[in-house]
Amino acid sequence: SYYHFSNGVATVPSYDTWDDFFTDFMTKKTAWGCYLEYLSEWNKYADKENIMTITYEEVKENPALSVKNIATFLGIPLTEEQLQLVVERSSFQSMKKNSDKTHGSFGNILFRKGGVSDWKNLFTDDQSKEMDKAFEEHIAGTKLGKKLKYDLYCKA
């Protein structure tokens, strides 16, 4: 996602190839620094009572349960009708369809495919191994890392 985002936003450095982006990503030369370090920093807050972690993969797998969990976390009671309305309006397809109204021309950059595991279409085997190693070094043992690893590898 970050690769496509970078190539879509004029104010962020773009990349001619995936390999160029991957090299910069792994050497912490992309805009906003190292994503794995960013996740590691957020892990400090994962157990706080006012923090809820949820992955895109979770939402895609079971949107209704995800909305219920978020509403419960926020203390917002939902009727079944309200729940279904939120699920429909917050679906990727619905948000993409309305993105010109909600996000202007930026919507085409933010709402690209809406799938999961598309990384498998870009990463070479060596890149995948390199990313796995970096993941292990930075966040694999953390609560957030365990959640991400399960969602990215076990569910995909």
From TrEMBL:
EC no.?
2.8.2.-
Q: Which residues form the Sulfotransferase domain?
A: 1-142
Task: Return the InterPro entries for the record.
Answer: P-loop_NTPase, Sulfotransferase_dom
GO function terms (MF aspect): sulfotransferase activity
Q: Which domain of life is it from?
A: Eukaryota
Cleaved signal peptide residues: none
- Pfam families recorded: Sulfotransfer_1
Keyword annotations from UniProtKB, A to Z: Transferase
Family, according to the entry, reads as follows:
Belongs to the sulfotransferase 1 family.
How is this protein named in the record? Sulfotransferase
The species this protein belongs to is Spizella passerina
Taxonomy of the source species = Eukaryota, Metazoa, Chordata, Craniata, Vertebrata
